[in-house]
Design goal:
Four copies of one chain form a homotetramer. By secondary structure, chain A is an alpha/beta fold. Helices cover about 50% and strands about 10% of the residues of chain A. In chain A, helix 1 crosses helix 5.
């Protein structure tokens, strides 16, 4: 699985801690981590949480990433922004049981976590435990398993519902504030990571045209 | 403020506990609670979490409610469904500090809480404390207050972004699965509560036509 | 390691859930679980949390158990009672990071957990995760490991301090309310489990004399 | 009520934050805060968590304080040390519901909180909420109130039990490592705060003789 890590500006200084925790857990499981940044508080490209949402939408709808790990101070801003996008189902995860249940019941494609609120000493341990619950096994098998069918059905209904409420991603890209969009993809490694992995020519062409 | 309470089927049996906690806190503050249900596990009208999302979108976009309090087993399903709707900014709240920060930083118009995961003995105390943080004072003033301006700016950017990603609510109502929509508004008190409070004739007319 | 499970009366009905979670995790690691009970809410032998403390003291000071897993509604009563005993260092554990840090930093010989407060749906998952952190590896190696020496030193100072504040266990047994003591060891499996594992003849003799 | 604040060396730098949160809440309620320190990481008098326990025992058994607020990185070390002392019943508090339930059910005379684990941005809000639950009303009235009598009975049994397991405080003071004891009372404001408030001449005399 291609897992994209996206950090916004308020917690950019923690990108190293988060990236370490994520790779420590998921690389041995055979997943790749694409660190879209930010990388430090004073990066040239400043990514705010609305831009996180936009970037999450781009990565998931283009197939450049299979899953997005994001967050912000409380996790709420980046979660709201990600969930504003078509085809994005972003959980807010605080502890390992949240992570497990989100994976098994909701089977979403993104999570946001708080990287400031509640993020104290040894928080890297909780990150690792949450990532392990998300990525170590098959998702969407339900918990308890007897309820797998109804859980799957509800996910399908939600996905259909959201397909009706949102415009498709290419339309979104064309209609949103173009300066915001440019900023969302201005990260120093965006081009290298994205175009090598995206499977959507129309999105690629549009972003290259900017 | 008109606060709508929406419970889905998996936690319907707790509607009484949640309604009591909510009214205990917010009525003395001068707010009204509209209990859209479900009211018990065996209500005729079974509301699933995708329906919760749809109903949340209807209530907020029509002005029938100023704020929606919802949730489900983990809170995630109802949060995802609510955030799939235009104009809805739904936080996932676990503790009072979450509630305070969501109100002050994100200034959303809906919250989802977990009513099964972590919901043990004395959980009604935590509900009350969360509601108090959300509804006792002015929201959106920032925390810390020195960062109020940047927080407000980001909220504005997110609201504009979401306005571009989503269809308007009336379009949504017309395009979603009409059986799902009928089920979402089939609660026994929906008609009484909604039409008396909605400020949007087009939404009213469309829903009445179903 | 011999791990004793002790449940008091208010949460006795959950003994099965807790015992399952504990054995699921620790038996594959090579540890034994001795379920001292209670086993259900209507057991003949009703164990209150002060009795839990006394029983914990007996098991750990006699060597009948190497570690005690206990708890109550909030965990606080059983934790206070256990820590009132000589030679008992009982943590209050809520989440897996608590469990890990307690094992590595404090290296205690007992934990209490809340089995009512915060104990909702899927709580068995958190129990398992906590037990895994406690019992899967070597304890007392410090976190971070660079601070292992100072952490070990402080544990030693605390152990010496507590050796001065408390009477020895045999003295305690002789001086406490003898009816309370009899009730603490009245569980239906106490005699079978205890006398087969205790390494302290004086304690055995005294308890047999009651 | 006289509330003593005791911070140990690992979290000494947070004494200001904790003291501010505590005074903000309890002074308007009519309580006094005695800040025994530490005050900063580089204080001359370095207080470790075993010393916190000893100091807690001194303050509560002498009547110099009615309640002790302490803690350490995870809260566990200071909690264990405090509970090793005669007459001390120290809870480990993480959230406001913990605080409320500890006050109402256990009615202890000390709390420890984690000041590093889970202590992130806006943690001062949680401190204030916890302190409010502890100190704003009458303690020991039970929750739910119907169970007040049985809760009170268990507290009494625990207090009697602990009275049998521990030596009295003066005996403790005479038997513990005298260098540890001197360090525990070496804080720069100890003498001013303690001798003005202690009600126990024998403890005063012994400490003055050191």
């Amino acid at each position: 699985m291609k897992i994209a890590l996206i950090n916004e500006n308020s917690q950019a200084a923690k990108n190293g801690i988060i990236h370490d925790a994520l790779t420590t857990v998921v690389e041995p499981l055979g997943h790749d981590v694409h660190n879209y940044g930010m990388y430090s508080a004073d990066d040239d490209a400043q990514v705010t949480y609305p831009m996180v949402g936009l970037l999450t939408g781009i990565l998931l709808n283009s197939g450049a990433a299979d899953f997005v790990v994001t967050g912000c101070g409380t996790g709420s801003g980046s979660m709201l922004a990600a969930n504003a996008m078509p085809g994005v189902f972003c959980g807010l995860i605080v502890d390992p049981t949240d992570a497990f249940l989100f994976a098994q019941i909701n089977d979403g494609n993104a999570i946001a976590m708080p990287y400031a609120k509640g993020f104290g000493w040894a928080a890297e341990l909780n990150l690792q435990d949450c990532y392990r619950k998300l990525f170590e096994g098959e998702s969407g098998v339900g918990y308890p398993k007897e309820r797998a069918a109804i859980m799957k059905k509800n996910r399908g209904v939600l996905a259909e519902l959201k397909a009706k409420t949102c415009h498709d991603m290419l339309t979104v890209l064309k209609s949103v504030d173009q300066e915001l969009l440019k900023s969302a993809i201005a990260g120093e490694k965006f081009a290298d990571l994205f175009y090598a992995n995206s499977k959507d020519d129309a999105i690629n062409d549009y972003l290259r045209s900017l």
